[in-house]
Structure formats: structure tokens, C-alpha cells
Amino acid sequence: MGEGNENRVELVLVNDLAELERLAAEVEAFIERNDLPPGLAFTFNLCFDELITNTVSYGYKDGGPHDIHVRLSTDGTEMRAEVEDDGEAFNPFEEAPPPDLSADIDERRVGGLGVFLVRKTMDHAAYRRNGNRNLVVLAKTLAPMAELP
Question: Torsion angle of alpha carbons 19, 20, 22, 23, nearest 10°?
Fold first, then answer.
């Protein structure tokens, strides 16, 4: 399990795609502990799958082990996630090619659809380079609970 309190947790993953399964379980547990809408697990895990797969697959040239830090938090009005790594500098929101959604599926160029989905499913998605580290920040606004009669 990650380190943190009920409404904040930090996980340290190694740059191995097998870690996505552990991350998905931690996201689900975090959402359950904080009584957040269960659908958020799918949304955040979809984004993590895309972003971390890209980092693991393309971010490291040395083939060695690297840590990827994932921080989850909520203040009751939004759920926020940060993904931080020491991979090659890459801003997925500016450098990933946009998908050609008008092209037939068999004719589409590979790449770009995952980042497109991240942007579409999140209310906030931003990138920043801090020294030799990439930081992606994601946030999803939580819909207010309906008032009971």
C-alpha cells in the first residue's frame, strides 16, 4: 500500500508495466476509502495506463530501474493525481500528435488517442518539467451530492 493518510496517498512504482495492476488496486482502494464515486477509478486508471505506459515504453534509454511517483489526493471537491518521473523530457499535452478522428480506424496513424482521452476525461491536465523530472497533474471535479428531501 502507498504511504499517506485517508485523503492523500503516495505510491512509488518501478518502471515496469506490471506495476499498473498494483496502481489500479490502490486507486480503487483510495476511492473507496474516501467514499468517492466508483466511476473515478476507471477514469483515473485509464489515464494512468496511458501516461505510465508511455513513460515506461519511451521515457528511459538506459534500460535500468527508475521510480515513478504517483500521488493521489482529494479535498472533497476534486480528486487530484500527480505522476512524476525522471524520464526523458516529454510534454504529452503538446508533443503527442493529435489523433485523426475523421480517418477510418484502419487508416489512422498510431499514437495520440490515449493522450486525447486523458484530456477529454479530466477537468485539468497539465505538464511541467522540474529539473530532470516530468510532472503531470490531473484533476477531476467531483459533482456535488444531490440534496436529500
Answer: 120
Angle at 120 between CA 46 and CA 21, to 5 degrees: 5
Please choose, from the candidates 121, 145, 125, the residue with its C-alpha nearest in 3D space to the C-alpha of residue 41.
Answer: 121
**Cβ contact 12:82 at 8 Å:** no
137 phi and psi, to 5 degrees? -115, 130
Block mean pLDDT (10 aa), the chain, length 149: 75 97 98 95 95 93 95 96 96 69 52 73 95 97 63
Region label for 35, one of left (φ > 0), alpha (ψ between -120 and 50) or beta (otherwise): left
Residue 35 DSSP one-character state: T
List of domains in the chain: 3-141 (3.30.565.10)
Report whether 71 contacts 9 (CB < 8 A). Answer: yes
**pTM given for the model:** 0.83
Is residue 49 packed enough to be buried (19+ CB in 10 Å), middle (13-18) or exposed (0-12)? middle
